[in-house]
From TrEMBL:
InterPro entries per the UniProt record, alphabetical: GSG-1 (IPR012478), PMP-22/EMP/MP20-like (IPR050579)
Residue spans crossing the bilayer: 21-38, 122-146, 158-182
Subcellular localization(s) per the UniProt record: Membrane
Alphabetized Gene3D superfamilies for the sequence: 1.20.140.150
Record carries keyword Electron transport: no
GO terms under cellular component: plasma membrane
Protein name (record): GSG1L protein
Name of the gene encoding the protein in the UniProt record: Gsg1l_1
Entry similarity comment: Belongs to the GSG1 family.
Length: 208
């Protein structure tokens, strides 16, 4: 028989610590789900021609003393890899953003629209699994809050704690499956996606 002599203060303290961790996990999950830093990398893009006062290595300069004269012969010495520049990008479930060369800011596009039509079903399954993952984490946090305020017996507290643990484990498994499905879709998009998006190099970002 389980003794009922465990101090209520200790039970509340343990439940409070567990609730704090559950809430922190839920907050991080929602932040990651809405962010666009699941994958980060670079694309090789052709350098634009330098215009006006543009200088630096991110545009192609005319090697001519009269660059502003359209009738003058313009010489361009960039060849091979010198004609390209690495453009940073980051992508998530909802959208993909890439930096604008020679300008500040980013250009964002819907990642769903970039995904090949044959793989969009898997992407939507990944989104549904992520939503269920967040819902289960929320259920676990609610159960922890109930345990924190429920002081009748040790047995009842342990039952709530055990059920919360099962819900949290299920949430973790769903989250893992959702991430694997997204990784599969992203790799297929890298291989079969639009030519003006395909990355040269990429790796997982902080929110993955």
């Amino acid at each position: 028989r389980m003794p009922d002599s465990v101090p209520a203060a200790d039970r509340r303290q343990r439940a409070s610590a567990t609730f704090s961790l559950s809430f922190l996990s839920l907050a991080f999950s929602i932040t990651a789900f809405s962010s666009s830093y699941w994958c980060e990398g670079t694309r090789k893009v052709a350098k634009p021609f330098c215009t006006g006062q543009s200088k630096g290595d991110h545009c192609i300069r005319f090697n001519s003393p009269d660059a502003n004269n359209s009738n003058a012969v313009q010489y361009i010495w960039e060849t091979g890899d010198d004609k390209f520049v690495d453009q940073n990008f980051h992508a998530g479930i909802w959208y993909s953003c890439e930096e604008i060369i020679n300008e500040e800011g980013e250009k964002c596009r819907s990642f769903i629209s970039l995904t090949p039509a044959a793989n969009r079903g898997v992407l939507w399954l990944s989104i549904v699994a992520e939503l269920l993952y967040i819902i289960l984490l929320l259920a676990g946090a609610i159960l922890m809050s109930v345990e924190m305020c429920y002081y009748s017996t040790v047995i009842d507290g342990l039952k709530i704690n055990a059920f919360s643990a099962v819900v949290t484990v299920l949430a973790g498994l769903l989250g893992m499956v959702a991430h694997m499905m997204y990784t599969t879709v992203f790799q297929m998009t890298v291989n079969l996606g639009p030519e003006d998006w395909r990355p040269h190099t990429w790796d997982y970002g902080w929110s993955y």
